[in-house]
Amino acid sequence: MADVETSSLVVEAASVDMEKQELEEGEIASTEATTPAPEPALEARHPLEHGWTFWFDNPNGKTKQAAWGSSLRPVYTFKTVEEFWCLYNNVLQPSQLSPGADFHCFKVGIEPKWEDPKCAQGGKWSTSTPNKGSSNKAILDQYWLHTLLAMIGEQFEEYDEVCGAVVSVRARQDKIALWTKTASNEAAQVSVGKQWKSLLDITDKIGYLVHEDAKRLDKHAKNKYTV
Questions:
Q1: Most buried of the four, 48, 105, 131, 186, by CB within 10 Å?
Q2: Structural domains of the chain, ranges and CATH numbers in brackets
Q3: What is the pLDDT of residues 99-156, one digit of tens each?
Q4: SS3 of 5, please?
Q5: Residue 50 CA: distances (Å) to CA of 80, 108, 145, 154, 166
Q6: Which residues contact 158 (CB under 8 A, 6 or more apart)?
Q7: How far is the C-alpha of 67 from the C-alpha of 4, rounded, in Å?
Q8: HSE-up of 68 (CA within 13 Å, CB side)?
Q9: Cα(34)–Cα(13) distance, rounded to whole angstroms?
């Protein structure tokens, strides 16, 4: 389909029904999804340390909602390596989403909201692709995949600090953020930031914004840490 509408981003239940979870009509999926390989035997799967949930927000491509998070919804929860790749290979890449859309991937039990108890005292590291264009869209997809693999593969030394990640597709500039839970722990946040920057091979500085500052000061909030 030439013009991919965000409302048609549906994860086909047949392709990710590894635990018999049903997805609601209208959820995220690739229009070029292929039939996954046969489900491996349970004993052959590779369990992850934590379960993770994919979330999707803003399906109509609007940058403003009557109530923030009103369109935020969980898509699928995966707990093994095989389930992750089954899901990842059957959803759209960030570069294919409509402007205004967000993908989230958070540990099970944590909602991608400032108000969540495990996020309330935290903040986020963030970076963006500098300009529009096919090459930068490819970089966005690469950033997203490498961030996901680092999270689910526990590649961060301060792994317990990591809550999840968000990729935001915008008309002017695409962004990706890594959320952590304890903004006051400078050593932990700097460690996570440096490792993330290295994993993505970013040369420019990246900043850490505290959620509480963002809520109080909005666009005037300043980064608490930079690496």
A1: 105
A2: 6-226 (3.30.760.10)
A3: 999 999 999 999 999 999 999 999 999 999 866 666 788 999 999 999 999 999 999 9
A4: coil
A5: 9, 7, 18, 9, 18
A6: 180, 188, 189, 191, 192
A7: 26
A8: 6
A9: 13
